[in-house]
Amino acid sequence: MSAAMPLMMLIMNLAMVAIVWFGGLRIGGGAMQVGDLMAFIQYAMQIMFSILMGAMMFIMIPRAQISANRVNEVLTIEPVIQDSERTESTLSTQNEGVTFQNVSFSYPGAEKPALSHLSFTAKRGETTAIIGGTGAGKSTILNLIPRYFDVTGGSVRVNGVDVKDVPLEELRRRIGYVPQKSVLFTGTVAENVRYGNAQATDEEVRTAARIAQADAFIQEMDHGYDSIIAQGGKNVSGGQKQRLAIARALVRKADIYLLDDSFRHWITGPMRV
Ligand SMILES: Nc1ncnc2c1ncn2[C@@H]1O[C@H](COP(=O)(O)OP(=O)(O)O)[C@@H](O)[C@H]1O
Ligand SMILES: [Mg+2]
Questions:
Q1: Where is the ABC transmembrane type-1 domain (predicted)?
Q2: CA of 231 to the centre of ligand 2 (A)
C-alpha cells in the first residue's frame, strides 16, 4: 500500500509529461492546436483517475471486510452478567441501604482475590467513606454494587435484596455512579450532564451542576451550558471533568450515589508541601 500510491502518482505524472512532450512536438509542426492538447490532457486525467480509484477499491474492500468482522465480533459478545430468572423489583419497599455479606471477589484470571470475606453495611441516609491505599480494592467494592462484576463469594444486598435478583435495568437506574476515570463525550456541557438522565430539564441540569460545584466554571465558558466539550473532554481540566461527571450522576436523582475517588481534585486553598 505504501508503495502503491507514489507509484501510481509517478505513472500519472509521466503520462502527463509524455502527452505534453508529444503534443508539443505536433503543435510545433502545425499538425495540432493548443486547445486540442488541453482537451486531450483533460480526458487523459479523467481516465487515469478512474483507474486509480478502481485500484484503490481493491485495497479498501478487504480492509473494510476485516474491520467489519471485528465490529461484528464485538457486537456478538454475550454479556456475562444477565438478569437471573427469579428477578424481583422489591428495591423500593425496604430501606436498608447497601450490605456486603462475607463478600469475596477475584478478577478473572487474577492470582489472588481482590476482596476476601468483606462485610459491612452502608446505611440509608448516611455517607459511607471507604479509605485505602492504591490497589486496596476501593473501586472493586463499588463495581460490585451495580453488578459491573459479580461476586465470587458472599452477597451484595441493596435494601435487603441480593443484587443478582434485581433486574439490571432497575438496579442501575437507582444508582448514580461516578467512575474513577470519567469520560466526557463530544457535545455540549448540557448534553454531557444530561447523559445521566435524558429527561432532565434545563433547571435540573443547572441544579446538579451547582451541587457538583461545576456551575461557576460553566458560566465562565464562552457559551455557558452550550459550550462544546471536545472529544474525551480535552478542553476541560481534570477537576472540571470530575465535577461534570458528578453532576451527571446527580441529575439521575438516584437512591444510591457511588463516588469513586471523586474528591481528589477537591483541594480548596493552596496546597502545602
Ligand atoms: N480489571 C481488573 N483485572 C484484574 N485485576 C484488577 C482489575 N482491576 C483491579 N484489579 C486489581 O484489584 C486490586 C484492587 O484494585 P482497585 O479496586 O482498582 O483498587 P483501588 O480503587 O482501591 O485503587 C488491585 O490489586 C488491582 O491490581
Ligand atoms: Mg480506584
A1: 2-63
A2: 23
Q: Closest ligand to 262 CA?
A: 2
Q: Which three cell numbers stand for residue 13?
A: 505524472
**Count of other CB atoms within 10 angstroms of residue 84:** 14
pLDDT band (50, 70, 90) for residue 86: low
| The Cα angle at residue 143 between residues 142 and 146, in degrees rounded to 5 | 95
Q: How confident is the model at residue 273 (pLDDT cuts 50, 70, 90)?
A: very low
CATH superfamily label, 98-259 = P-loop containing nucleotide triphosphate hydrolases (3.40.50.300)
Would you say the CB of residue 133 lies under 6 angstroms from ligand 1? no
Helix (H) or strand (E) holding 161: strand 161-162
Q: What is the mean pLDDT of residues 21-46?
A: 93
- Give the H/E segment covering residue 116: strand 115-122
- For the chain, which residues make up each domain, given as ranges? 4-75, 98-259
Which of 190, 227, 226, 236 is CA-nearest to residue 209?
190
Higher-pLDDT residue of 158 and 72 is 72
Q: Are strands 228-229 and 98-105 parallel, antiparallel or unpaired?
A: unpaired
Gap between the terminal Cα atoms of the chain: 55
Nearest CA to ligand 1 atom 1: 107
Whether residue 135 has its Cβ less than 6 Å from ligand 1: yes
The pLDDT confidence band at residue 248, using thresholds 50, 70 and 90, is very high
